[in-house]
């Protein structure tokens, strides 16, 4: 079921209500907006029913605003109340967050839930709704392949771009980078692009060695890896990174190399040896002897 019609099972009530913060479930963030202390909560939060009598509302969008209200002693916040399912709420959060700067992991988690719950048919449909490129969405979703304790440091001790490059590494090199990052973080240091470069260099070096093994002369010693498999994996990784479907890539390669998809089943015949043509003439036959060597 893809997103169509109303986002929720019933139309969203657009009337803003003032909701006491004591009735809202505790937000799972400690971040605050200092401006709220002076100006109050200017932008409404999005809430849904939690099913609990003591705190009947759960935050869909606006965790920092609610946390700020709690910290600064603000008793009520403006809110919209809705009734969405898990997938619908994730879709709503994805669309709301796309309208302003949001933490990349919050976006990625909402996108993943919305896709898993069938609110969008695929990444392309999601991209059309949130107005973010397919490539950016895929990069953000790949962040979720990193360990949770590492994700907590993104934007603090690990830059988002560094984390994206780490998530894009092949599994064996990604594990090396993760261990290197954990050592840095345990020492209270940041994990930077320079630290990641070692794992990226190792991947490039091993890939070059695989190509040398595949296309170069026979090695003196057996190499304990399958270069063809590594080449296929690298092509798949690059295709996924660029948002290219593999069937389309194969078709493009076939167009560029005529006959690529039509291997010959009959082995090529060796070139024919030059044939000696003998011309018969009446009379004597010249055997190619010098005059002094001719027979009497």
Automatic annotation (TrEMBL):
Q: What range(s) does the ParB-like N-terminal domain occupy?
A: 19-89
What biological-process GO terms show up in the record? chromosome segregation; positive regulation of sporulation resulting in formation of a cellular spore
Task: Cite a single Pfam family from the UniProt record.
Answer: ParB_N
An annotated GO cellular component: chromosome
Annotated stretches, region: Disordered: 260-296
Q: What's a Gene Ontology MF term here?
A: DNA binding
Quote the PANTHER family the UniProt record gives.
Answer: CHROMOSOME-PARTITIONING PROTEIN PARB-RELATED
NCBIfam families in UniProt: parB_part
Question: Its family?
Answer: Belongs to the ParB family.
Protein's name in the database: ParB-like partition protein
Query: What organism is this sequence from?
Result: Deinococcus aerius
């Amino acid at each position: 079921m893809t997103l169509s019609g109303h986002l929720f099972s019933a139309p969203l009530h657009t009337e803003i209500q003032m909701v006491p913060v004591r009735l809202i479930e505790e937000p799972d963030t400690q971040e605050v907006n200092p401006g709220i202390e002076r100006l109050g909560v200017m932008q409404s939060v999005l809430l849904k029913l939690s099913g609990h009598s003591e705190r009947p509302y759960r935050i869909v969008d606006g965790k920092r605003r609610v946390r700020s209200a709690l910290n600064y002693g603000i008793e009520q916040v403006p809110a919209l109340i809705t009734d969405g399912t898990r997938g619908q709420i994730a879709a709503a959060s994805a669309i709301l967050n796309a309208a302003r700067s949001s933490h990349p992991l919050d976006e990625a988690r909402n996108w993943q839930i919305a896709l898993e719950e069938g609110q969008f048919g695929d990444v392309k449909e999601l991209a059309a709704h949130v107005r973010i490129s397919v490539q950016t969405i895929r990069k953000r979703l790949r962040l979720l392949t990193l360990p949770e304790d590492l994700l907590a440091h993104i934007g603090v001790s690990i830059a988002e771009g560094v984390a994206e490059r780490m998530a894009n590494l092949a599994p064996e090199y990604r594990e090396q980078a993760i261990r290197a990052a954990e050592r840095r973080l345990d020492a209270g240091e940041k994990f930077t692009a320079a630290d990641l470069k070692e794992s990226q260099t190792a991947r490039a070096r091993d890939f070059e060695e695989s190509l040398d093994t595949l296309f170069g002369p026979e090695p003196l010693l057996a190499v304990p890896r399958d270069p063809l498999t590594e080449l296929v994996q690298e092509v798949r990784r690059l295709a996924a990174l660029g948002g290219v479907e593999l069937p389309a890539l194969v078709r493009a390669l076939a167009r560029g190399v005529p006959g690529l998809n039509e291997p010959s089943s009959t082995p090529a015949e060796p070139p024919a040896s030059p044939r000696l043509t003998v011309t018969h003439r009446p009379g004597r036959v010249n055997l190619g002897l010098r005059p002094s060597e001719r027979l009497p």
